[in-house]
Amino acid sequence: MLQNQTRLRMTRQRQVILEELRQVDTHPSADEVYEMVRKRLPRISLGTVYRNLEILSESGEIQKVELGSCLKRFDGFPHPHYHIRCVRCDRLVDAPTQFDVSLEGRLQSETDFQILGHKLEFSGLCPDCK
């Protein structure tokens, strides 16, 4: 069931994409999601996966991660949280720290900006690369 208030129609393809994405914590690319989904829906096209990932991202069901890498990644956990990216192998994991919403309030009070949100990505070397 979609969490978003917009009543997005949950097609079989969207449901399978969402289920597959929520079963992993690897933050796969669209191509990787496509390979995962094809095991259950062999006739699905890559274009359909790309379109539905964008729709699910825009509806707030998943998170699109596009910070330090040129490759878009997708995260089945849509709630605000931080990531850590390996600068050598591009591995992306959830940071084990709380999301700090107070940063937004402090920045808004100290600037002329209306802060709508923030994303933070840490970079380093993963255990396999260090």
Question: How is this structure best described in words?
Answer:
By secondary structure, the protein is α+β, with helices and mostly antiparallel strands. The chain has a single domain, classed as Arc Repressor Mutant, subunit A. Helices cover 32% and strands 13% of the residues. It has 4 helices and 5 strands, in the order H-H-H-E-E-E-E-H-E. The strands form 2 sheets. Strands 4-3-5 form a 3-stranded mixed sheet, with no helix packed on it. A two-stranded antiparallel sheet has the order 1-2. Helix 1 packs across helix 3 (46-58) and helix 2 crosses helix 3.
Outline of this structure?
With 130 residues, the protein is of the alpha+beta class. It has four helices and five strands; from the N terminus they run H-H-H-E-E-E-E-H-E. Strands 4-3-5 form a three-stranded mixed beta sheet, with no helix packed on it. Strands 1-2 form a two-stranded antiparallel ribbon.
